[in-house]
Amino acid sequence: MAPPAIIAPSILSADFGALGKECSDTINNGADWLHVDIMDGHFVPNITFGAPVVTKIRSHVAKPTEKHGKGTFDCHMMIAEPKKWVKEFKNAGCDLYCFHYEAAISSTAAESPEATSDAKTSPKELIRYIHDQGMLAGIAIKPDTKVDVLWDILETKDEKEKPDMVLIMTVHPGFGGQKFMASELPKVAALRQRYPELNIEVDGGLGPGTIDQAADAGANVIVAGSAVFGAKDPSEVIAKLREAVEARRPKL
Ligand SMILES: O=C(CO)[C@@H](O)[C@H](O)COP(=O)(O)O
């Protein structure tokens, strides 16, 4: 069964001065998840916020009552040392911890003078660790990374080491409001062909003008920042994104 549409507005485009209300309004406007962009100024050339802010916004949005449910905090960890922050984000109220493949395998992070012994880890070990903390695990790849690096990870027979979601970046991570890169969609199509039930997320430049291409390729988890937070009627945009994905799901 193809997975349902999940609309996850990126709060990077929200008003940071009123983040709690922006988050609860977005859920009330029909969003399923909130996509929480965590940037450390190392893995990407931008800084957002850390776990204390996630704790605060959690108090404005009820925890999901089921796996993948409404109110899921989908934390996109654009950070150089993803293992280091797992427990902290769990305690802050994160439900899905999505790390970057490139950061997990990077020896640069592990060899830097500030790095902790946790800096380098295999993606499968990290997924196991995230699951052990009671969160869902996602793995993201940047536009320059080939989708082939994911096959071995997705083929694992050990459920604890299997990701709950794959994120294909459709912009270079770091900033909102960038142009959608359709060149990344063959990765989505290849994933969907192999894994009909996998949650496949796309992030960057998504909105009413680009959703059809992403949905055609097989994406079902849709991140949209400026298209939702910049809209006159965010609920209308969220509904349009959902309709586009649902229209492509095979009817039983
Ligand atoms: O992770 C990122 C950027 O690094 C995204 O989540 C963007 O924040 C999406 O913003 P839009 O492209 O939808 O404005």
Automatic annotation (TrEMBL):
Cofactor(s) listed in the protein's UniProt record: Mn(2+); Fe(2+); Co(2+); a divalent metal cation
Gene Ontology terms: biological process: carbohydrate metabolic process; pentose-phosphate shunt
Functional pathway: Carbohydrate degradation; pentose phosphate pathway; D-xylulose 5-phosphate from D-ribulose 5-phosphate (non-oxidative stage): step 1/1
Enzyme kind, highest EC tier: isomerase
Keyword Cell inner membrane among record annotations: no
Catalytic machinery residues: D37, D203
Keywords: Carbohydrate metabolism, Cobalt, Isomerase, Manganese, Metal-binding, Zinc
Transmembrane segments: none
Keyword Zinc attributed: yes
Protein name: Ribulose-phosphate 3-epimerase
Organism of provenance: Coleophoma cylindrospora
